[in-house]
Structures are given as structure tokens and as C-alpha cells.
Amino acid sequence: MYDDKVTPAPDDSPDGVSRRSALRAAGAAGAGLGLGLGGTLGAAGTAAAAESNAAGQAAAAEPKRQGKTMANVPFERRSTVRVGIVGLGNRGDGMIDLYLAIPNVKVVAVCDPVKAKCEKAVAKVVKAGQPAPAVYAKGEDDYRNLCKRGDIDFVYVATPWDFHYDMCKTAMLNGKHVGVECPLAMRMDELWDLVDLSERTRRHCMQLENCCYGKNEMRVLRMAHAGLFGDLLHGAGAYNHDLRGLMFDPDYYEGPWRRLWHTRLRGDLYPNHGFGPVGNYMDVNRGDRAVSVVSVGSPALGLAEYREKHMPPGDPSWKESYIESDRTISLVQTAKGRVIRLEHDVSTPHPYSRINSLGGTLGVFEDYPPRIYLEPANTNDQWDDFGKYAAEWDHWLWKEHSNPPGGHGGMDYIMIFRLMQCMQLGLVPDFDVYDAATWTAPVPLSHLSIRGKGAPQAIPDFTRGEWKKARPGVDSKKPTG
Fold first, then answer.
1. pLDDT tens, position by position, 157-183
2. Which of 147, 277, 297, 359 could cross-link with 364 by S-S, CB 3.0 to 4.6 Å?
3. DSSP letter string over 382-448?
């Protein structure tokens, strides 16, 4: 059941739900700061807005800090990083190859309830010349035993979203740094809990947001920080990816866990791929911060129509009622007044796009396809060639690894290489638990906003004031040591 299968971009290459998933879904509808994760829209506009505002204010409440900040906290230096991998579906199975490709990284343990997946992972590790890793395949809770091992420095989590919170929490409580596929968690109280736990345990809890390491994203990041866009004004990011066929494929998303989230929430289920890069451009949590979000959503028609055309009578999916908006659009406001537009659409036909745009007083960049317009070079209202900026502005990671292995155009490898480098050299990670929580906050908050007819929702200051201090992030300098 550990089958995250984070969906590849186009250049990449039965139906039961676990008891844990069912309990998580049932408990999501109104527990503490997770208010609003279940239920229907059914209230009048003003009443819904009032309810949404009350829930949003509760969600934004800043609990008292229980430890010291994790901002600018370096890893402990270590010559070899020992990794435990939890979840060996499409994503975990592909990512294990990247860990094995990096010098002085050892995969010492793997975990998945499906023994065949563990056996496949063990074979990869042995083929790479490392000792066979320990296997944890005794049910959905065996990851707890992996986390108890004394010979693991970092736990990588690539499982369905339902498990992310518990697995991150367990890893940190057992003294491990942890990196998780997005989103970090599905409820606001869980996000705060992970922030507090990271601070108490002094362990890093990171959202492994690969899109922050895309070649275009890193080039734009450096250009923005150098002032080529002038004063930044607006940006946009998205996860617009037609997943209808995959979500109804019984062999792709086990459970089918991803489709079932469309029966639970109305908001942006997957904001991280868009929010992370644009947040980096604007130094969110490093001189600026996201303060509020307003979301609207279209009707939920796409999955039901696809089912009508493609699924046979009697298929278990016919018992499902979809409430997730086919297209969710959110506007995030920052403390400096900048605007970030986020979109999410995985249930209608359209080409793949993460939008990935940035605008300022001197011009604008837009991706898919990449194009740019900057003064004073451009004055004729015609898009310019973004490629001409590569030689000067590509990040050192892409210059050093010009043809990286792995999926998503190589950004997966760049991300893992950099993370392992930070751990080996004892550097501050490029992003931390505050970034993970901020990039994920639109999941519950967009749902509340849509329920409240577009009512604004406050985004908490997970840094508790640390955002006011400028500090490095993904726009890193090449280490000299």
C-alpha cells in the first residue's frame, strides 16, 4: 500500500482503501485546526463565509514555540549519509537509483508492505555494490521499526499522502532527519505539529520539492536575486496535469488513494510544485512571507464524466462522489504586497503546465514554453529567447551536472545530490520545515476559502518572526570545502 507514485512530467517516462486511510479521512472533518476538511458546501454564502473565517482564524493561530528555531541550523557533518527509504512504488522505486548514484550515500534499509517491491529494491542496492539493506515489510506500521534503527541518518518518505504526517513525526522522534514527497501533511494542526517537533528534536523535516531544482526555475531564481526583473510584483505556479487515466488505473495509484482525495476536499490538493519555486523567487520565509490566500473552484465534473465514458458498470468507482474542483485558482498575498497565483487541475484534458512565471517592474518570464521580456533589452512587445541567459545565469549545480540522471529532466537528481552534499559537508539545507509547511498550507486553507465562497484565509507565520531575516535558500553558493 506504500505507493506514492508522484506523477512524472510528460518527459518521463484493487480498489480497496487501507484501514488507516479510511480512519484518516473520517477524522479529517473538523478536528481542531483541521476544521473544514470534510463535509459539503451546502450553507448559504454569508454563513459559509463566517464559518470559513472562524475556522481560518483558528488555523492561523500561532502556538507558543516549544524549542528553538530551525532556520539556519546546519546538518551534522558526516562522511557517509545512511538512508532509509519508506515507500517503494513508482516514486520510491525511481528515487532509490538516484541515492545509489551519489558517492558516499548508502541505502541501509527499505520499507514497503509489498514484499516484491522490497525485493526489487534490495536487488538494486546489491547491484550498485552495497550490502543488502534491511527489509521492513511486515504491514503498514513496520516503518516504525525502520525509524528505530541506530544506523540511519536520513529517512526518505515516498508514500500516499495519508501517511506523510505520521511517518515524518516518527522519524524525528527517533532522531532522524526526514525528507518527504509533497504535500507535507493534509491538515493545519499536523503542519504545526511537525514544525514544533522539528524545533524540539533539532531534526530537519523537509519537503523534497524537486521543481525548485528545475533548470529554468534555478535560472529565473538567480536572475531575480540579481535584480534583472526589477522589484518583484507577481508570480504564478501550478500543477495542471491530466491524471484522469492514471487515477482510474487500478495498478497505478493503489487504493486508489489519489482519486479518493477528490471525494474529500474541494481545494488545491497539490500546491507545492507551483508555490515552492515562486516562493523562492520572492524570498518567502527569507525576507518576505505569505500572509493570506483566497481560493475559488470550478464545478467537479471531470472525473465523473471520465468514469461515464471509460469505467464498466459495477466498477467500485461508481460508488464515489467527487467534490474536488476541476480547476482551483488561488491568490496568495505576501507581506510585501506581492501576488502569487496558484492553479490545480488534474481532472480535465489539457497539456501539462506548471505555469512558472515571474513579473517585476523591469519585465516578465513565462514558462511552457519558456520565454522572457526584460527592459532595456526588449522594447518591441515581442517575447525574447530565454536560452540566451543560460551561460551567465544557470545555477552552478546545473553547470556541474549538465546531463543529470533520473526523471523530470534531471531535477530529481540535482535535488538529491544537493541534499546529500549538505548533509556530508554539514551545511544548512536549502529549505526547511517552515518552507514545507508554508508550501503545503494552501491544501487545507484553499478548501476553507472555497467553502466560504472565496473568503480570505490567513496563512500562519510558521517561522514565528524569523522570516524577517534574510538568509540563503536554493540560490546557494558552490561549497569550497
1. 999 999 999 999 999 999 999 999 999
2. 359
3. --B-GGGGHHHHS-HHHHHSSS--SSGGGHHHHHHHHHHHHHHHTPPPSS-HHHHHHHHTHHHHHHH
- As given in the structure block, the three cell numbers for residue 212 are 525548485
Pinpoint the alpha helices (H) of 229-387: 244-247, 257-260, 272-281, 302-310
Residues pairing with 340 in the sheet: 235, 332
pLDDT of residue 8: 39
**Paired residues of 303 in beta bridges:** none
* Residue 262 grid coordinates: 477528490
Query: Rounded to whole angstroms, how far apart are CA atoms 278 and 358?
Result: 7
Do 172 and 192 form a contact (C-beta atoms < 8 A)?
Answer: no
In the structure grid, which three cell numbers stand for residue 223, read together?
536572475
Q: Are 352 and 241 in contact (CB under 8 A)?
A: yes
3 state SS of 295 = strand
Quickly list H helices, 128-187: 143-147, 161-173
Structural contact between residues 141 and 111, judged by C-beta atoms closer than 8 angstroms: no
List the one residue out of 90, 101, 93 whose CA is nearest residue 130. Answer: 101
What is the arithmetic mean of pLDDT over 1-29?
Answer: 40
Residue type, 387: G
CA distance 51 to 69: 33
Please choose, from the candidates 91, 342, 350, 162, the residue with its C-alpha nearest in 3D space to the C-alpha of residue 239: 342
What's this model's pTM, rounded to 2 decimal places?
0.90
| pLDDT tens per residue across span 353-371 | 999 999 999 999 999 999 9
Distance CA 232, CA 226 (A): 11
Give the Cβ contact number of residue 471 at 10 Å: 14
**pLDDT > 90: what percent of the chain?**
83
